[in-house]
């Protein structure tokens, strides 16, 4: 398996949280009905994990999870991006998606 940039972040956090404990992440309901990850995912750990990442890292995770066929992580990353653009105008979406990077959301 080739090394992808997100591996060190996820292999140290996401994989042990689920794969090492035999837990199965709950499926994320679609369509996304909130802009708050805490209201979208069943497990609070998922929300804290994905909210703690920069937008650039989330996109890297989406690409890596797709490549490695980790569907739960792929859906988590896509849900995060969906929360960023939900209810926005096309101009706002373009600005959000074209920004170089941002800082992770503040932890509450």
Topology:
Blueprint: H1 7-11, H2 14-18, H3 37-40, H4 44-51, H5 55-68, H6 71-85, H7 90-98
What can you tell me about this protein's structure?
With 108 residues, the protein is mainly alpha-helical. 56% of the residues lie in helices and 0% in strands. The chain contains seven helices and no strands. It has helices at 7-11, 14-18, 37-40, 44-51, 55-68, 71-85, 90-98. The longest helix is centred in the C-terminal third of the chain and has 15 residues, at 71-85. The radius of gyration is 14 Å and the shape is globular. The chain starts with 6 loop residues before the first helix and ends in a 10-residue tail after the last helix.
Low-pLDDT runs:
none
User: Helix segment count?
Assistant: 7
* Order of H and E elements: HHHHHHH
SS strand fraction: under 5%
Distance between the termini: 36 Å
Helix/sheet category: mainly alpha
List the quaternary state of the chains: single chain
| Main pleated sheet | none
Shape: globular
Helix content: 55-70%
Average pLDDT rating? 81
Overall strand count: 0
Question: Could you name the key traits of this structure?
Answer:
108 residues; single chain; mainly alpha
Structure described in brief:
The chain is built from seven helices and no strands. The protein has helices at 7-11, 14-18, 37-40, 44-51, 55-68, 71-85, 90-98.
